[in-house]
Amino acid sequence: MLLDDLDKRILQQLQQDAALTNHALAALVHASPPTCLRRVNRLIDEGVIARQVAILAAEKIGPSLTAIVEITLDHQASERQTEFEQLVAHESAVQQCYRVSPGPDFVLVIQVADMPAYHALAHRLFATQSNIRNVRSFFSTLRSKFETRVDVP
């Protein structure tokens, strides 16, 4: 899908604040409200806008521990990687899962309440799986930057 300047302006504004009303968005991107609404709907239908969500400050809700976990599999065949992805896809504490190269096979970002919750998750997801060769975990002591915005060229 080719994005024109209006599409790009819309995407940039929505990445800053997806709760904008259509009229406010239209004013910010210098378009009429009907044109803006039509464009946003098209961007959603085409899958350019994957989801519109509220990003929460986990530390304000309760105790929070972020773990960045490297996973190395014994067997890296595509179907074995897909099996692992399906395993972690059903775990709500796993916020992100990336296949990476070189190095480990996967990097996960995990958000749990505390260390006992991490240990329970690690046992459930990693210790009981025969194809996992190595797990290396890093625990965040401070998040100095967090961004969800994607540069729109």
TrEMBL record:
Q: Where are the transmembrane segments?
A: none
Residue ranges occupied by any HTH asnC-type domain in the UniProt entry: 3-64
This entry carries the following GO cellular component terms, namely:
cytosol
The record's section on Pfam families has: AsnC_trans_reg (PF01037), HTH_24 (PF13412)
Query: Which GO terms fall under biological process for this protein?
Result: response to amino acid
Organism equals Undibacterium parvum
Looking up InterPro entries in the UniProt record yields: AsnC-type_HTH_dom, Dimeric_a/b-barrel, Tscrpt_reg_AsnC-like, Tscrpt_reg_AsnC/Lrp_C, WH-like_DNA-bd_sf, WH_DNA-bd_sf
Name the Gene Ontology molecular function terms of this record: sequence-specific DNA binding
Please give the name of this protein: Lrp/AsnC family transcriptional regulator
